Amino acid sequence: MAPTPSDKKKKRQTVAQNLRKSNENKENVIPCTPSVSNPKSPFFTLRESRLFNVTNTPKRGISESPVDTTPRTPHNVYSYKKREFTGPSCEKLSSYASKTAKDHTKNVSDHYQVIHNSLLIELMKQTVCERCQSKWNGDLATANREGLYCSLVFTCKCGHMIKIGTSKCCPQTKMRDVNIRCVIANLAGIGHQGLAKLFGILNVPPSIDDDHYSHTVAHVLPSLRAHQQNSMSAAVEKACTESGSRQLSVSGDGSWQRRGFSSLNGVAAIMSSSTTAKVLDIERMSKKCSTCIGALSIKHVSREKYEAIINKHNCEMNHTGSSGAMEVDGIYRLFERSQHLYNVQYVNYIGDGDAKILPKLLNNPPYDNITINKIEDINHFSKKMLHRLQKIAQDLKQTKIDGKNDMMTNFKYYYRQAVVRNKTNLDEMVKSVWAIWKHKASTDLEPHHEWCSPIFCGFTKAWEEDKEYDHTKHSLPLAVMNAIRPVFTELASRATLNRVLNGSSENANESFHSILWSFAPKNRYSPGTIIDVCVALAVLVYNDGYQSIIPVVEQLTGGEGGYYTRLGMERFDKLRVYYEHKKKRKEDVRAKMSVEERKQQQDDDEQLDDAYLPRAY
Ligand SMILES: [Zn+2]
Ligand SMILES: [Zn+2]
Ligand SMILES: [Zn+2]
To answer: Any idea where the Mutator-like transposase domain is (predicted)?
Structure first.
């Protein structure tokens, strides 16, 4: 006889009661929410928690703790601690946070649990089977598995089956939440092969197979790209507001996934040149296409299939020629499309030493009636000093400068400082560069400090204080100074220095590229589409912080992003702001210290040798 609906209801109640009872038994509790009873969140160590802003829970210092029941207001969500030394990251991230203040942290059970099968069976054994009404006793089997998702079937001895899936279906696709997250895991620099290793060691079934993974990447990419484009468009508008014009100063740089010119993939990026530099546009360049190469294997087996694949695919190859030409072509492409894409023109270009980009921009002007100005990158420019000195050191093996790499690096540093400090004044710039040579060539008999500044010159300082100064330890031998004099004649000339007048640096590009290649490491094989995923993630992280990835996850998985995803991204952003602060503070302390040290240790060779102490400016 079939059970009546009320019978069914009763049975369900019994099961529920049994479950509840067994959960009360402490030894067998399998907690379903994180550490609600535990005052310390497992996600943060106590030390880390001290780094963060304390708005809601001053004592513990983590406003994100699951036990924190204080209701959040837009003002105390995502705020960064006010600190004395802040930089561009803090500014960018705070600005993003102020736009997105939203409270999503209530659903503390919105996350995955890693649990061993034997514990699930144990849990079931503490329940009563709905059908046979005796203690459940049976088996657990996996009916269906797709990457980290699986469909579990608990079968009681009586034959009664209970099925559960371990991850939800995402909107507009049959893909599972957890597998989509596996693609976004590129954020950790882990691709498909990396996941296989990670899962292997964690004793978790292998991730989705190659085909499924590529399929998931293809599904995730359009959303990621849309968010990336929004971020870049917003950055363009911000740059226009800041400069009060739609003609922008930008820096441009290319980089390759692998060192050298054999790399198959590279990117070219244009960034705004303001203090809070952001990526405005970027192009991934590939010399080969993984689909084209993959399809070759079936070319001889089935010509039809091969052609179907080739005709259908979106080819990744967008660059012919050498890897070295990638940068030039890529940057040029970005200039060309700026009007069409953003209605802006890049009129001042801060580029590195690659002399090929500017001629291309000048010979094939991307804009009508506009000549693009090149401003040399100061960092790259000052490396000339190092290279010239190294060459001389090679020629003169016996000189004292040979083997003194530090000394040569210091000369580069002084040179850079002379340029940076006199950025807008060519006469002063020329004098300051010569002052380096004259200072180092000075002896007690022939002091030449007339162009020195007391800020870095021990002699001038001692003279001002009416003290004695001993040159013997600090000056380099005259033979060395004469040998390197031609370098100064060239690099301190008005013609050379004129190129960095009003200069700027490409530091921002370097820092962006390092984020990007940490997501797509050089030692990892990555087809173009994976580089695209990494480019999108890197642009989002660089421009707006890790938290800007949450809306992408929300959109793709149709949820609220997940409790620990939110917590994690917030944490990374806070750490980024904290480390920036720490670095700035250190630099400041060091600059102050070196002045002090110079006072006390004027006779110390190493110190005096570097009366132009790094960061003493
Ligand atoms: Zn049963
Ligand atoms: Zn192709
Ligand atoms: Zn001096």
So the answer is: 122-457
Ligand closest in space to the Cα of 289: 2
DSSP 368-404: TT-PPEEEEBHHHHHHHHHHHHHHHHHH-TTSTTTT-
Task: Provide the residue range defining the domain that includes 266.
Answer: 219-375+505-539
**Residue 525 maps to a domain:** yes
Does residue 511 share a domain with residue 370?
Answer: yes
Distance, CA 296 to ligand 2 centroid (Å)?
11
Mean of the pLDDT values across residues 64-88? Answer: 57
pLDDT tier, 105 (very low <50, low <70, confident <90, very high otherwise):
low
Tell how far the Cα of 452 is from the centroid of ligand 3, in angstroms: 5
> By C-alpha distance, which of 601, 587, 616 is closest to 436?
616
CB within 8 Å of 419: residues ≥ 6 apart: 378, 381, 382, 429, 433, 497, 500, 503
Closest-approaching ligand to the CA atom of 132:
1
Q: Give, as residue ranges, everything with CB less than 5 Å from ion ligand 3.
A: 439, 449, 452, 457, 459
Sorted by sequence, the CB contacts under 8 Å of residue 250 that are 6+ apart come out as 270, 271, 272, 273, 280, 346, 348, 349, 350
For residues 489 and 522, membership in a common domain is answered with no
> Given this model, what pLDDT does residue 532 score?
95
List the one residue out of 420, 397, 429, 392 whose CA is nearest residue 408: 392
Mean pLDDT of 329-356: 87
Do residues 133 and 251 share a domain? no
Measure 310 CA to ligand 2 centroid, in angstroms: 7
Q: Is residue 233 part of a domain?
A: yes
> Is residue 616 included in any domain, yes or no?
no
Task: Find the ligand nearest to 462 CA.
Answer: 3
- pLDDT higher than threshold 60 for residue 610: no
CA of 166 to the centre of ligand 1 (A): 22
Q: Is the pLDDT of residue 258 over 90?
A: no
Distance from the alpha carbon of residue 316 to the mean position of ligand 2, in angstroms: 5
pLDDT band per the 50, 70, 90 thresholds, residue 354? low
Cα of 502 vs centre of ligand 3, distance in Å, is 26
270 assigned to some structural domain: yes
Q: By percentage, how much of the chain surpasses pLDDT 90?
A: 33
Number of domains in the chain: 3
CA of 536 to the centre of ligand 2 (A): 21
Q: How far is the CA of 379 from the centre of ligand 3 (A)?
A: 24
Cα 313 to middle of ligand 2, angstroms: 7
Pair 509, 498 in one domain: no
Ligand 1 center from residue 30 Cα (angstroms): 22
pLDDT computed for residue 387 by the predictor: 85
Distance 135 CA to ligand 1 centre (A): 8
Together in a domain, 291 and 245: yes
Asked if 332 and 233 sit in the same domain, the reply is yes
Instruction: State how beta strands 149-156 and 161-165 pair.
Output: antiparallel
Cα 535 to ligand 2 centre (Å): 19
pLDDT at residue 583 in the model: 81
pLDDT of 38 > 50? The answer is no
More confident residue, 493 or 59: 493
Q: What is the mean pLDDT of residues 541-564?
A: 93
Residues 6+ positions from 563 with CB-CB distance below 8 Å: 34, 66, 105, 107, 108, 109, 110, 111
What's the CA gap between 249 and 350, in Å, rounded? 8
Tell me: do 388 and 432 sit in the same domain.
yes
Which ligand lies nearest to the CA atom of residue 439 in the structure? 3
